[in-house]
Design goal:
This protein is mainly beta and 178 residues long. The chain is 12% helix and 36% strand. Strands 6-5-4-1-7 form a five-stranded antiparallel β-sheet, with no helix packed on it. It has a four-stranded antiparallel β-sheet with strand order 8-11-12-13, with no helix packed on it. Strand 11 (140-147) and strand 12 form a beta hairpin. The longest helix is centred in the first third of the chain and has 14 residues, at 2-15. The radius of gyration is 23 Å and the shape is elongated. It starts with a helix and ends in a 14-residue tail after the last strand. Mean pLDDT is 83; it is low at 1-37.
């Protein structure tokens, strides 16, 4: 066995390589598929964004050479960015469907969608506060700010108010939004 190791070292030395332990960062990079190691925005993943347009092509892969799988038709709808490859972002919607879109079709504006049951929009951030509107499932809107368990939002009709984080999709549990 020692003779085999000597032979291995001799061969590697002749190739100009060395055996060094991997740092934790390079070990993690070695575990990731090459496609996900390509440069993206450098922003943290996952994160939320919104659709910039009324028509957003969702592709099967990260490039214009990949076929369009379906088309989103809801400007302002929130999506979760779960991966990046150059100028393409892999997104997931509130129903769990995922695919790749060009980064120019997304905006950093924060949106929300009422995902399952109707939610009350309150005048102030308290359950006991006056209810100013009832938002039905699939209503989308803009998140203005979040603190604690509440977010200040605005819907397309122009109505603003406070909604509990747990009543909508598009914001993480304890994520602050200013």
């Amino acid at each position: 066995m020692p003779r085999l190791l000597c032979l291995l070292f001799a061969v590697m030395a002749g190739l100009g390589t060395s055996i060094l332990p991997l740092s934790p960062a390079s070990a993690q990079a070695a575990d990731k598929p090459l496609a996900l190691q390509r440069k993206g925005s450098g922003l943290p993943l996952p994160r939320f964004a919104s659709l910039r347009s009324d028509e957003v092509n969702v592709r099967t892969g990260p490039g214009s050479r990949y076929p369009v799988d379906w088309v989103f038709k809801r400007k302002g709808m929130p999506v979760e960015i779960v991966a990046e490859f150059e100028n393409f972002r892999k997104i997931r919607d509130w129903q769990g469907a995922s695919g790749w879109v060009h980064q120019s079709l997304l905006t950093g504006k924060r949106g929300f969608i009422i995902s399952s049951k109707a939610a009350n929009l309150h005048k102030t951030p308290a359950k006991s506060a006056e209810v100013t509107a009832k938002l039905e499932p699939e209503v989308i809107g803009e998140i203005r700010s979040c603190a604690g368990d509440w977010c200040r939002v605005k819907v397309p009709s122009g109505v603003s108010g406070w909604i509990e984080r747990t009543s909508m999709w598009g914001v993480y549990k304890s994520e602050p939004i200013n």
